[in-house]
Write a structure and sequence with these properties.
The chain is of the alpha/beta class. Helix content is 49%, strand content 15%. The chain has 14 helices and twelve strands. It has helices at residues 3-24, 29-36, 40-47, 54-67, 73-80, 96-112, 125-135, 152-159, 182-195, 211-227, 244-257, 269-281, 300-303, 315-331; strands at residues 85-90, 115-120, 142-145, 165-168, 177-180, 201-206, 237-240, 263-266, 291-293, 310-313, 339-342, 344-347. The strands form three sheets. A six-stranded parallel sheet has the order 2-1-3-4-5-11, sandwiched between helices. A four-stranded parallel sheet has the order 7-6-8-9, sandwiched between helices. Helix 6 (96-112) links the parallel strand 1 and strand 2. The radius of gyration is 25 Å and the shape is elongated.
């Protein structure tokens, strides 16, 4: 969905849907209350997630189900000052990790009576800024930003936002964040390979402007090398974008730069699968001649040949935590800034040689 279409939907939805909403709301709360044998206050609490007894809740639910009644969104917004919409800004919809995070967000919003307005930026920081501006026009109750890069303009817009904002997948000072331990995850997977005997390592990094998947993972790789007394290998790296095509190209570039490598660690599973394709075309056998590892524990890590050693991050759970946090801020805007760091697990598979299952 383009930024323009999001703006048009937000700006024009009330006018376009008035007639339709009136048709759906020929019944009113008083009639629902009479049919269910409860008070109008009980019906109002039912639709606004207030407390009522299970007996009354079930009686109202049956009437609503039988009649198809839906409360007016416009009336609810005027009364509660809430749109029941959460804006979610993502870098790309075709990413397995992003899909898992979005699934986690949806699971919470669906249960809470909120809807998600999804904005796909196609990894364009300028579009992130545009969507932040659109969502800040009080047309949503809160924003969850799955960001990759924070520019000065990002920070300027974020500082002036009038609705709650949660950053997911990155850590930035002054904002509530749900993020992953990218540094230690990469340290551990690098150390695993070193301890198993492969010493001449290389790294295919994501862009370092991406502090999490790029810089933190590269720093974790360098720290493991340093602690093993192999500081000179820190320069054995190239930088890729997040595609298989780039992983393929950068694998060739890395081997030219660093001939004789025994193992390569990639910043994502997608990059790793592209790198594996290059190795196969060059007749380099895995895992006999080359070990390879990724990050993400996506489905491709199980269907690649050999299966890919990787890091499992709690992506879906991070989406759940982000959604719960944004709803807390909507209800209580005086909450202090907090950060939640999710756990991880190194998942050893065939691409790094024999292992204990």
């Amino acid at each position: 969905m383009s930024a323009r279409s999001v703006r048009e939907r937000l700006a024009g939805s009330g006018e376009r849907s008035c007639a339709a909403e009136r048709r759906k709301n020929i019944m009113n709360i008083a009639e629902i209350a009479e049919m269910a044998g409860v008070s109008r206050a009980a019906v109002s609490r039912y639709f606004n997630n207030g407390y009522i007894s299970e007996e009354k809740k079930e009686a109202i639910r049956k009437v609503v189900e039988e009649t198809g009644y839906r409360p007016s969104l416009q009336a609810q917004t005027l009364r509660t000052k809430k749109t029941k919409l959460i804006g979610v800004i993502i870098p790309r919809i075709d990413s397995a990790s992003i899909g898992s995070i979005v699934a986690g967000i949806l699971s919470v919003l669906d249960e809470s009576g909120y809807q998600m307005l999804l904005a796909d930026t196609q990894n364009d920081p300028k579009r992130e800024i545009e969507y932040l501006t659109i969502f800040d026009e009080k047309q949503v109750d809160g924003v969850i930003l799955l960001a990759t890069v924070f520019t000065a303009e990002h920070k300027r817009i974020m500082k002036g936002m009038s609705v709650p904002l949660i950053v997911t997948g990155q850590r930035i000072a002054g904002y509530s964040c749900v993020y992953h331990d990218d540094y230690h995850a990469t340290y551990d997977i690098t150390n695993l390979i070193l301890e198993k005997g492969r010493k001449k390592l290389g790294f295919i990094s994501a862009i370092h402007q991406d502090k999490a998947a790029g810089l933190e993972r590269y720093h974790g790789y360098c720290s493991a090398l340093r602690d093993a007394g192999l500081d000179e290998l820190a320069d054995n790296y190239v930088i890729s974008d997040f595609s298989m095509k780039s992983g393929y190209e950068k694998m060739g570039e890395l081997l030219k730069k660093c001939p004789g490598l025994e193992a390569v660690i990639c910043a994502t599973d997608t990059i790793a699968v592209g790198a594996m394709k290059y190795l196969k075309e060059q007749g380099i056998r895995m895992p006999e001649q080359m070990w390879i590892a990724g990050h993400g524990d996506s489905m491709v890590s199980d269907v690649s040949a050999p299966t890919l050693t990787t890091v499992h991050y709690a992506y879906e759970e991070s989406g759940v935590m982000s959604a719960k946090m944004i709803l807390e801020y909507i209800e209580n805007k005086d909450l202090t800034v907090k950060g939640i760091m999710m756990g991880y697990e190194v998942v050893e598979k065939e691409s790094t040689g024999p292992h204990d299952r």
